[in-house]
Design goal:
Blueprint lengths: L5 E5 L5 E4 L5 E6 L4 H10 L1 H8 L19 E4 L2 E8 L7 E2 L3 E4 L6 H28 L6 E4 L6 E3 L5 E4 L7 H13 L8 H10 L3 H11 L8
Parallel strand pairs: 1-3, 5-7, 8-10
Antiparallel strand pairs: 2-3, 4-5, 6-7, 9-10
Helix pairs in contact: 3-4, 4-5, 4-6
């Protein structure tokens, strides 16, 4: 049983092995850690790693890729909307209870939709995060919408809050859960019982949002 993995070196003090949502294995290691040491750790934990790779909550082995053809559906705020490909000239993507792009831009649909989703995420997620931060009473440095791989959000040591632009495809309740989750890390860096108590105080039904992400999270990343 061979475990394929990637290594990320940093200033951290300990070595960790993470199985990401797409079943890829990432080793985060302190600088100057030898490949031999990492290989031994992988070998020592290989049965546990394989079990996590095969977990049914990870992404399907075969993921759908959007073709951006007429009639196809794309997710936005938890709902699926049909795509119309029209002869008229449209600058980018239009949304009016359905998505519209020009036929002449169909070969650029991937790029155009990504730009549209990022713009929408900045317009919806960023102000909502600022309002919730004020409600919780926490101070942050910056709020950013980024192309984050494998995470819905993160809170950095410098108090910057990052959100994955793909989150804009999820229901508002799920977006609010991720916002509260990351902002709570400004008060509690680890997932302690106190952390979850604070999250629950803001969102008593946060478990429903967690469950939605476990069941549907892979669909947020199948478009691109």
């Amino acid at each position: 049983m061979e475990i394929r993995y990637s290594i990320i070196y940093s200033e951290r003090k300990t070595l960790s092995i993470i199985v990401e949502r797409d079943r890829s294995v990432i080793v985060r290691a302190p600088k100057n850690t030898s490949t031999e040491v990492i290989a031994k750790e992988i070998e020592k934990r290989k049965h546990l790693i394989q079990k996590k790779i095969e977990h049914n909550q990870k992404y399907p082995y075969e993921r759908q890729v959007k073709e951006f053809v007429a009639g196809e559906s794309l997710m936005y705020l938890g709902e699926n909307y049909k795509l119309n490909v029209v002869d008229e000239q449209i600058d980018g993507v239009l949304f009016d209870n359905k998505f519209l792009i020009s036929k002449e831009n169909q070969n650029q649909a991937n790029r155009l939709f990504k730009a549209w989703y990022i713009k929408s995420a900045n317009e919806i997620i960023t102000p909502k995060a600022k309002a919730i931060a004020n409600q919780i009473g926490v101070k942050y440095n910056n709020i950013n919408i980024l192309d984050i791989k494998y995470r819905w959000g993160s809170c950095t040591p410098k108090d910057n809050i990052h959100f994955n632009w793909r989150l804009i495809k999820a229901p508002i309740s799920v977006i609010e859960y991720i916002i509260v989750h990351e902002l709570t890390h400004l008060l509690e860096s680890n997932h302690t019982q106190e952390f979850w108590n604070r999250v629950s105080a803001q969102l008593p039904n946060y478990e429903k949002a967690k469950h939605w992400l476990k069941e549907n999270g892979h669909e947020l990343e199948t478009d691109f």
